[in-house]
Amino acid sequence: MTRDDMPLRVVWLECRYRPAVAELDKLCYANPLTLLELQTMLRRPHCTGAMVVVGDRLIGYNIFESHKDRYTILRFAVHPEFRRQAVGTRLFQYLAKQLSTRKSRIIVEVPETDLHSQLFFRALQFRAIHIERGGLGTEDVYIMQYRKTIALIVPQSAGELTPHQ
Description:
Layout: E1 8-12, H1 18-28, H2 35-43, E2 47-54, E3 57-66, E4 70-78, H3 87-96, E5 105-111, H4 115-123, E6 127-136, E7 139-147, E8 152-157, E9 160-164
Parallel strand pairs: 4-5
Antiparallel strand pairs: 1-2, 2-3, 3-4, 5-7, 6-7, 8-9
């Protein structure tokens, strides 16, 4: 099945899908969350998630925290069978639509050894803004940021408005 004929739905993470999220986490992370750890994470204030489903099958998810001025992605995964089919991009776009003038950026921490994730987020216009030495014990972590571009209208002369970034 290709991305052109997949009936994808991107929706807020539903409680009934939490066991499937824990199973997908096992496929995608070297240190997966248990179902209990996942449920504990989602009970934290301002922590929620989104998921991509085909029919009733979970094929991707992200878990993120909402802060005063940003969102921080805590977990982001796409089932290996559905990678490179724009599933992750659709999941990111769902979160990016939540951005506003007040919350204008998304932050994600990516391990130095996870080149696939670095390239994926870079393709989505994330930029590395900091390296946290030993952020995962002995491994460094790249702090990557996506900023929403807001076009401002700036008057050039009387009666004339042009977009300005």
